[in-house]
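Memo subject: From amino acid sequence to discrete backbone structure tokens
Keywords: amino acid chain, backbone geometry, structure tokens, three-dimensional fold.
Body of memo: The sequence and its backbone structure tokens, given next.
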Amino acid sequence: MPDITDLLFYGFAGLALLFGFLCVANPISRSPVTSAMFLVLTIVSLAGLFILLHAFFLAAIQVLVYAGAVMVLFLFVIMLLELKEEERRKFRKFTVGAGVIAVAVIAGLLLQAVFKAVPFGTGPTVLAEGLTQPLGRILFTQYLLPFELLSLLLLVAMVGAILLTKKELK
């Protein structure tokens, strides 16, 4: 018999996957604002997963920083650009090919990391659940390189989003 925690996990995980897919595919409308709203729902679902892990600080930061400040910034940029469907850029074959290669490389790195991962319970232990000091110590000592790579990946994603929404000069 599944526990309520298991049901909540599967519910939040399913919602995060569904809203993430809808954010990218956006079958409801072609408006980038709709994609941004699906991204907010994905972020809130991930915050629910953090709460299930007793990481209340991360859940609060997830909602406040990402769903609050970053999404306001994204919506501001979307509204400022005033994109219309007919003004969107056409994709070039090289760009699509480079994107597919980049996704394949990232997927390969992810699979390599999963296969080389240390079994659960043998990694570093956090002294107290929910405290930020042990989390920060582990994050900036043992996981500094992945943390910095993630920040670089977010920067590249932001630059890519700006280039995709840039109007072509005639």
The two ends are 63 Å apart (CA to CA). The chain is about 75% helix and 0% strand.
